[in-house]
Structure formats: C-alpha cells, structure tokens
Sequence to fold (109 residues):
Amino acid sequence: METNFFERVYEIARKIPYGRVTSYGAIAKALGSGRSARMVGWAMNASHNFDDIPAHRVVNRNGLLTGKHHFHGTNLMQQLLESEGIKVKNNQIVDFDIHFWQPEILTEL
Fold:
C-alpha cells in the first residue's frame, strides 16, 4: 500500500502516547527521511482538520513549542500539553527527556 508523506507522518503522530511528546526530526527519522523535519512540520500544520491527530504532542528537538502559533488561541498547544500532565515553562517542555517518545522506524514505506 503506497501512501504519501503526510499520511505516513499522521500514522506515527496517532501513536504518540498520552502524556508524551516527540519531535519533528524523530518522526522524519522513523520514516527514513531524517533530513525532512521541516516537511513533518508542514504535515503537522496541515493536520488541524483531523480530530485524531495529536499535533500538540510534536515539538522541536529541544522541546520548544515551535508550532504553537498554528493552534487557535494564544496558548492552546501549551494548555493541551499541560492537560496531559506535561509542564511547560517559557514555551519549552520541562523535563523533555522524561516525556520524549521515540517512534519506531516504519519498515513499510
């Protein structure tokens, strides 16, 4: 079954566990496209029409909420993360290493 890049990004994003986060780069690497973190960001930005994609759980490699301006409301991304027990301070996840989830590398590309 052949799927496009955005659909493959969404497949991984749907697997991010509640109370955990991952990075754009980690998703790109899991897809075998390690240098495509920016494209993952574009996919996440385009995902807001899908209720089943937890885009708020995808942050940059340092735990910064770089995609927050794509959410409705001033602090919606932060509020969603905090509702899952993830502390955010100055637009950055506190204890990022504890909350980080490493996606499995997809074998079927």
